[in-house]
Design a protein that fits this description.
Function: Catalyzes the hydrolysis of 10-formyltetrahydrofolate (formyl-FH4) to formate and tetrahydrofolate (FH4).
Pathway: Purine metabolism; IMP biosynthesis via de novo pathway; formate from 10-formyl-5,6,7,8-tetrahydrofolate: step 1/1
CATH class of the largest domain: Alpha Beta
Catalytic activity: (6R)-10-formyltetrahydrofolate + H2O = (6S)-5,6,7,8-tetrahydrofolate + formate + H(+)
EC number: 3.5.1.10
CATH architecture of the largest domain: 3-Layer(aba) Sandwich
CATH superfamily of the largest domain: Formyl transferase, N-terminal domain
Largest sheet: 7 strands, mixed
Number of domains: 2
Strand order of the largest sheet: 7-6-5-8-9-10-11
Family: Belongs to the PurU family.
Bound molecules: the ligand Nc1nc2c(c(=O)[nH]1)N[C@@H](CN(C=O)c1ccc(C(=O)N[C@@H](CCC(=O)O)C(=O)O)cc1)CN2
């Protein structure tokens, strides 16, 4: 049966009347609201965030006309940033990976189980190691060598493969830094799993950094990718306890479970339009 839900995400300066304006607009146009969450932040004098799901069977306008009417009648008077999407429009997810398979496989398993409202359409890797694993899921695998010195050629090839063909890029332990120019073409549409509890231990080899620091927890962080390494808006995190008895490999072993689960949750929430980015932070209606 076709999924007839639409999702509306809004952020705007907080003031009385926002809920009434949105709900009365949707009511007037035949929408039936089936889920509604909101949050008001004290930042910047008050910022309002909401996520609504509504049924579209009785909407009295074509979707594009509904969006135009919302922009004029509601969004403009309340200075809203907003996005309206249809649940039936599944996002196309491309995954970039190097040699580690755990985060990638969790995504592929989640997708194959039907627990991801998206489709994994392509995997790109700078190594050949994971080709067989990826192709066993029926997903195309493309090898694109990459390195600090070959970055422009690699990213030109990746742009050919991705531009207009994917809605979200996921760096599933992809171990190459993506250039600011490449990132700029995918604003808030690249998710990375960093293998530490950011902001601690950015950059390469965070488990070695954590071991040398004598930490008592290790963590994983899923965040949107920005030009600044491992500094983008955090979407999801988790931690696990460690001790002096653990080696670097023990930290990595514990961390792998954290990484794969944290990334899967972040990707699922993005694909379900549950994330609003405000500045360098997120509001997640999970
Ligand atoms: N623009 C961004 N690119 C990438 C990010 C990011 O946040 N912004 N995250 C990384 C993943 N990552 C940590 O999570 C990470 C990966 C690799 C490196 C690194 O120093 N790589 C070296 C090469 C290492 C090698 O060849 O083995 C490099 O690219 O020069 C740091 C952090 C993914 N990209």
């Amino acid at each position: 049966m076709t999924d007839s839900r639409a999702i509306l995400l809004v952020q705007c300066p907080d003031r009385p009347g926002i809920v009434a304006a949105i709900s009365s607009f949707l009511f007037r146009h035949g929408a039936n609201i089936i889920d509604f969450e909101q949050h008001t932040s004290e930042d910047e004098g008050g910022v309002y965030f909401t996520r609504l799901e509504f049924q579209t069977e009785r909407i009295d306008l074509p979707l594009e006309d509904l969006k135009a009417a919302f922009a004029l009648d509601v969004a403009k008077p309340f200075a809203m940033e907003w996005r309206l999407t249809l649940a039936a429009e599944r996002k196309r997810v491309a995954v970039l990976v190097s040699k580690h398979d755990h985060a990638l496989l969790e995504l592929l398993w989640t997708w194959k189980r039907g627990d991801l409202r998206a489709d994994v359409s392509l995997v790109i890797s700078n190594h050949q190691d994971l080709r067989a694993s990826v192709e066993s899921f029926g997903v195309p695998f493309v090898h694109v060598p990459n390195s600090k010195d070959a970055r422009p050629e690699a990213e030109a090839r990746m742009a050919e493969l991705l531009d207009g063909k994917a809605d979200l890029l996921v760096l599933a332990r992809y171990m190459q830094i993506v250039s600011p120019e490449f990132v700029a073409r995918w604003p808030r549409r690249i998710i990375n799993i960093h293998h530490s509890f950011l902001p601690a231990f950015v950059g390469a080899d965070p488990y070695r950094q954590a071991y040398d620091r004598g930490v008592k927890i290790v963590g994983a962080t899923a965040h949107y990718v920005t030009a600044e390494l491992d500094a983008g808006p955090i979407i999801e995190q988790d931690v696990g306890r460690v001790s002096h008895r653990d080696s670097v490999d023990d930290l990595k072993h514990l961390g792998r479970d954290l990484e794969r689960r944290v990334l899967a949750r972040a990707v699922k929430w993005h694909c379900e339009d549950r994330i609003i980015v405000h500045g360098n932070k997120t509001v997640v209606f999970s």
